[in-house]
């Protein structure tokens, strides 16, 4: 099974951040509270699907789908 990313989440779906696949983007995401082990929930999408809105570390974070694709996740059981 291939790795899933935050960009693959459906609205309302929760997951745990595992790692990142882009070193430069990971620094920016870490500063915004996207830490490995943190739970994220996709709370909404723009009408055309980009950008998306995540709940992470107690706040709502909007990002492009291309940025979200760099955050690798595992499903919350």
Automatic annotation (TrEMBL):
Superkingdom: Bacteria
SUPFAM superfamilies: C-terminal domain of transcriptional repressors (SSF50037)
GO molecular function list: transition metal ion binding
UniProt keyword annotations, A-Z: Iron
Transmembrane spans: none
Start and end residues of each Ferrous iron transporter FeoA-like domain: 4-75
A Pfam family: FeoA
InterPro entries (alphabetical): Fe-transptr_FeoA-like, FeoA, FeoA_core_dom, Transcriptional_repressor_C
Name of the protein in question: Ferrous iron transport protein A
Annotated source species: Spirosoma telluris
């Amino acid at each position: 099974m291939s790795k899933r990313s935050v960009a693959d989440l459906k609205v309302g779906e929760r997951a745990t951040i595992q790692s990142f696949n882009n070193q430069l983007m990971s620094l920016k995401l870490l500063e915004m509270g996207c830490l490995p082990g943190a739970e994220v929930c996709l709370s909404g999408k723009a009408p055309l699907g980009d950008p998306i809105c995540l709940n992470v570390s107690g706040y709502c974070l909007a990002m492009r789908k291309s940025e979200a694709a760099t955050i690798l996740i595992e499903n919350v059981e």
